[in-house]
Amino acid sequence: MTTLYIRLPARAEQEGALARFALVADGGSLVQQGEGALRSMGDAVAASRHVVLMLAAADVTLLQVKTPPLSPARLKSALPSLVEEHILGDPDDCVLVAAPVQHEDGMRTIAVVQRGYLESLVKGMLAHGARTVAAMPAQLCLPLTPGNVSGSIDASGITLRHGQYQGLGLAVSGGPAVALQTARALAGDSPLNLYVPNAQLGEYKALVAEAGPGINLEAEHWAHWVSGSKSSTMDLVPALGAAGAQARDWKKWRWPLRLALVAVVINLVGLNVQWLRMKREADAITLGMKQTFKAAYPKENVISSDPAAQMRLNINRAKAVQGQLTPDEFTFQAAAFGEAARSLPKPPVLATMQFRERATTVKLKPDSIEPSTTAALRDFLAKRKLDLTDSGAGVYVIRSAGGKK
């Protein structure tokens, strides 16, 4: 993926001026560079992961304003009143961004740029297909060298950077000699690293002695601007709010969303149809069981939600009336367990026996239980249609195999 850097000409000359651009790979290598109108950069913008706009220094004012120690949210709200006396026009018509660093004397850099201008630039990039857009003052995209001033002279004028969040821009009329002398004067007493067009490097070198001492001339290169832009975090786009965010294009999702909706509807219909079919089957089975119960007991109402359980209960009652024992009774379970215990080579010793809810709980003395006792008891009781559950520590629960839950 690549990042597209665009150096914009000053607004005053943008009618016919061309913007310079560079396409830089993630590793820092320069893929392509050139110049052209913004409207002709659509393909490069769409193919880039990120677009960085370098606004001409003359179009972004960096004010040094004394600010109170406020949280970022409160400082953002207070910015219009803090800069009102420093700018011409209404602060609401400007994008205001405070530097994240406040100096010990309470001074802080505030970037000011015309809102309508910045918004039109960002929206244009987003319309071309940019994924993300950043906009930075060009004076803060020059290389940062502690103790030195960095500067650039080109067709747009002079751009100087005095510190991490300090810089200025100035349109200059006149030849290279005037530009050099002006840049030297604006740099003060600090050494000046000055970048000039490669084609004019010889001309500037011939004039540098007349401009004053402490000027180091270098041919301008995109590597200077790219590395310099990474030393500052003053991105102006977030201050635009929603206007700087990419509008989601729902049109390309129209058919996928429709297909997803159709799939959901089909699945819901299928689930409802299957549920209705299974409910009808369950109702038919329940109705059949109730009819069978009524045929066997015509004078008795079906009071249970489980006719089969009610039928088993009635059968057990009938057997009890006739003197027959059923697996649900304590006598049957106790007798079967006693018979099973006596069949073992070494019968276990009974500690307690309790009957509750059609199940008998038997507790044996642990030292009387052999390793094979549980399996032998379970196999014997299974032949009597009884189920044995080992609860541990010599405790067994015995119940009818047909009534196991």
Could you please describe the fold and organization of this structure?
The chain is an alpha+beta fold. It contains ten helices and 17 strands. It has helices spanning 42-47, 72-83, 115-127, 176-186, 201-211, 222-229, 254-296, 307-321, 330-342, 373-382, and strands at residues 2-7, 19-25, 30-36, 50-55, 61-66, 94-102, 107-114, 132-137, 149-154, 157-163, 166-170, 192-196, 215-219, 350-356, 359-364, 386-392, 395-400. The strands form four sheets. The chain has a five-stranded mixed beta sheet, sandwiched between helices. A five-stranded mixed beta sheet has the order 11-10-9-12-13, with helices on one face. The longest helix is centred in the last third of the chain and has 43 residues, at 254-296.
Radius of gyration: 45 Å
CATH fold call of the domain at 142-223: Nucleotidyltransferase, domain 5
Strand runs, count: 17
What's the end-to-end separation, in Å?
Answer: 64 Å
Main sheet strand line-up: 3-2-1-4-8
Low-confidence stretches: none
Morphology: elongated
Fold topology:
Blueprint: E1 2-7, E2 19-25, E3 30-36, H1 42-47, E4 50-55, E5 61-66, H2 72-83, E6 94-102, E7 107-114, H3 115-127, E8 132-137, E9 149-154, E10 157-163, E11 166-170, H4 176-186, E12 192-196, H5 201-211, E13 215-219, H6 222-229, H7 254-296, H8 307-321, H9 330-342, E14 350-356, E15 359-364, H10 373-382, E16 386-392, E17 395-400
Helix pairs in contact: 4-5, 7-8, 9-10
Outline:
With 405 residues, this protein is α+β, with helices and mostly antiparallel strands. The protein is built from ten helices and 17 strands.
